[in-house]
Amino acid sequence: xxxxxxxxxxxxxxxxxxxxxTDGKLFVGRMFSVQDSLPKLPVPxxxxxLQKYLRSVRPLLTDEEYVNxxxxxxxxKRDPGPKLQSLLEKRAQKETNWLSDWWTNTAYxxxxxxxxxxxxxxxxxxxQNYTDKExxxxxxxxxxxxxxxxKTMIDKQTLPVEKMGKQPLCMMQYYKILCGCRIPGKKxxxxxxxxxxxxxxPKHFVVAHxxxxxxxxxxxxxxQALSTDQLYExxxxxxxxxxxxxxxxGLLTTENxxxxxxxxxxxxxDKETKTSLSIIQRSICLICxxxxxxxxxxxxxxxxxxxxxxxxxxxxxxxxxxxxDKTLQFIVGKNGVCGLNYEHTTAEGPPIISIVDxxxxxxxxxxxxxxxxxxxxxxxxxxxNLKFPELKENIEEAVDNIDSLxxxxxxxxFKFTEYGKNFPKSQKLSPDSxxxxxxxxxxxxxxxKPCATYETASxxxxxxxxxxxxxxxxxxxxxxxxxxxxxxxSKQKKAELLRKAVAEHKxxxxxxxxxxxxxxxxxxxxxxxxxxxxxxPALHMDMAYSLxxxxxxxxxxxxxxxxxxxxxxxxxxxxxxxxxxxxxxxIIFGVSAFNCCPETESRKFIDSxxxxxxxxxxxxxxxxxxxx
Length: 628
Fold this sequence. Notes:
Elements: H1 3-22, H2 46-57, H3 63-78, H4 81-94, H5 100-109, E1 122-124, H6 133-155, E2 163-164, E3 167-168, H7 172-176, E4 180-183, E5 190-193, E6 204-209, E7 212-217, H8 228-240, H9 257-268, H10 271-281, E8 286-289, H11 301-310, E9 328-332, E10 338-342, H12 349-364, E11 380-381, H13 389-408, E12 409-416, H14 422-426, H15 431-447, E13 453-458, E14 467-471, H16 475-484, H17 491-516, H18 519-531, H19 538-541, H20 543-549, E15 553-557, E16 565-567, E17 576-582, E18 587-594, H21 602-621, H22 624-627
């Protein structure tokens, strides 16, 4: 089942929703009550995008380079820009969302590097208070109960419509998050989805322990969810049945996608193995019960936990106790270390954090509210018959590759506790824009130059909306960074430069979330050219386009109610990945780099961010406007 089938399913869901609304069965405020009234993603005016593009690349270019790029843009504006714009506008009229299919393919399914570290983020939960195997399994059971409780709201479509201010948002990602899976392909992957409105929807989890995988039915004979106590007994049975580590077949899912696709084809040739693969793909999600945990130096426990969520720690720890194609993998480790990993094709961070907050709230309640379910079945182990010698060789190669990747990842989590988002709010500044300027200053302090910076902008105000890019580096952010490093400038002047830079960033954010960003529009113009057998435009071959798309800082704000932290790898070899959870009185950061690049180091960047946050507060408090 490939993308075409999924597209039909999404269409069917939309049709069902229309019928339900007509029948008066869908109440206002429920999950899809406004779905069909959401606007379609617009195609921005060509001239507007090109002018914004020139402004955005200016701080990255020398005068000579900028003059050349201006000429490239002028040529594109004459030809083939208008023709491509017209073709793109025609596509937008026919499609529910002119970008969504293209983006799924370009950003995810056609990406050939391993999803581990490169695509799939990890989320670290606050440390839980269990210390032994029984506590670990009891927490896992409660986590599953909380997950099933959330799933009921998805299945019945009673989740309230999420809003950005007063603007309702597309809820389709929520609908697919617990039933999606990526499938490896030799040139391009596919993606399957088993939504709750189809016949025989998934009612089971797959539990991983000691590299073995088990089928766990989540409902009894009367379609009632298993109680937490029953789930605990099932998990205890699974652990008992997998005392010794199995062949690390899960490592194949951490491989380069072309390599994994070749192994996958071999696995499908065995009937029993093919059934096991189908059970994993059709599961609600994966539950990973981890065993080993690396030793942590004092103060580095959260960073160690983050590595477990991002990549599992390598072949000696938990990387084989995963199935990285599955959209959601909840991970419960030793000594209270837990979190999740998610494959990005299906959704962005907000649906994930919504589930996390719900589960952590649920686990925080002590009472057992569920009643035992009748007719439960014992879990059963999934079998993988590795009858081809090539498969064993591929697994051995996967061991070496994951260990190399793990060694290359430089990842640290830190909490900035001097102040949180309340301080920039008190200065009438956007907390997000304020933090983005801290990243700009931090980078400039270390490298004496600005860099292309990516921040995620949500397009969920539109039907099937995903993301666009907020280009956080601007002429204003560069002037601010230079000003902060100039000892001759007064605090007043530095504060003015900061406010100006924050205002510029805030304006870009406002435009991007309204569908007026430039990166997806420029991508659309390139893809519509290829679709019509035209050459890649010179604009997209220009050095400025490559430079402004090489994100030395890739960032995402993922706010959570709990002290959770999302982490991901850099998007370029010489870059940083920065995720942040701004809370009222503290900010939690996850910062990554690659050890293979001698110029980047996560701790060095963290120290520079910390220094930036101190200095920015000092100049604001020392300015006249702050005291008014």
